[in-house]
Amino acid sequence: MARTRFKSDRGLTARMGLVGFLLAALYLGFGAYLVYASNSIAVGAIIVVALAWGQWYFSDKMALAAMRARVVTPEQAPELHGMIDRLCALADMPKPRVAIADTDLPNAFATGRSPDHAVVCVTTGILRRLDAEELEGVLSHELAHVANRDVAVMTVASALGLLAGFITRWGLYFGGGNRDRGGAPAFIVIWLVSILVYAISFLLTRALSRYRELSADRCGAFLTGKPSALASALTKISGDMARIPSRDLRAAESMNAFFIAPAIRTASLGGLIDSHPPLEKRLEQLARVSAELGRPL
Questions:
Q1: Residue 122 gets which letter from DSSP?
Q2: pLDDT score, position 56
Q3: Are strands 97-101 and 118-123 parallel, antiparallel or unpaired?
Q4: Are 218 and 137 in contact (CB under 8 A)?
Q5: Where are the domains positioned within the chain?
């Protein structure tokens, strides 16, 4: 976690380290197996690693482009900038760039490879729906993501899955592998292993994603001292999401893991593949924060 006044979360730090270690071990073993089993995949692996690095390095620009968001100056959005200025001063952290996405979808997200290269984006939909205290709660949540550096970790962790996904989807079209080591049957084994690796990495990153949302809720609520404002904002956002046309929700689904609330929730497998914890769990945690602060939710 960056040196800020956000309440530290050792649980998040430990989980980021564990997920990072497991993913690194998983992909080192997977890469070694690919090198041994088939030379034909080496070029594809190099390309995907390059793409993964580009995704990490340009993550902020890619996220803004996906939402058609624009970076705004203090002159263009004085109230929004003023609120972020106050929160950054309170948290003692660098101020990220500020962006607005012109969409009725009520949401917000933070992205960037480090606190010095971060951006916090809100939609026009959320600006219309939330009052000042609720918006402050949302912004403190997003700034907590930046301070915790979990945005960068999630970006890298998600990018690692590109390699296995590449093999799973396209590997069979790149030839039958090394014929001296079994030909087509050997490559089918590689394909099946790729599916397994992709599934494991997907579950690991989703588990981290759910915890990091709870951590940002908690850190943001402690910073402002107003957990009830964030609870009200989450309730409004979740309730109004049902009024957004399905077409717009599907268009934003690729950003689900970075949103404060999912555009589309697909609860299944006991929540194992969800990017966010249930709203009820988030509200229960904020109620506990209120109790710790001695304030009613």
A1: E
A2: 72
A3: parallel
A4: no
A5: 10-293
